[in-house]
Amino acid sequence: MAINKIQNHALHELVDPFLGFESDSKVRNMITDVAELAFQCLQSERDMRPSMEKVLENLKRIQGENGDTDNTEEVEIPADEVVLLKSDPPPLSPDSVNVNWICREATPNASS
């Protein structure tokens, strides 16, 4: 479906309208470039698809061309949660299996 929409210049039908594809030329350019890259990735012939290294390179280029080169985001973490991140692994979920399983050879039925 994606290939068909891209080939028929109906990319707007694939994009969430809240992204601003119709109203923001910068967004439209980025989405169009990503769609072209996706089109290359969807090729059935392996040799026609770009390597993951090339995909990453292209995504960084697309991001850089549109002026959004600083994609770092500062997140404030409360002090009590920092301790959790640094401590031992979290306890097992109640659904986790934490009993050691013992594999025994099948024994013939004694009543046979």
TrEMBL record:
Record keyword Transferase present: yes
Keywords of the record, alphabetical order, are: ATP-binding, Kinase, Nucleotide-binding, Transferase
Origin, by domain of life? Answer: Eukaryota
Q: Name one GO molecular function term.
A: ATP binding
Report the protein name in the record.
Answer: Protein kinase superfamily protein
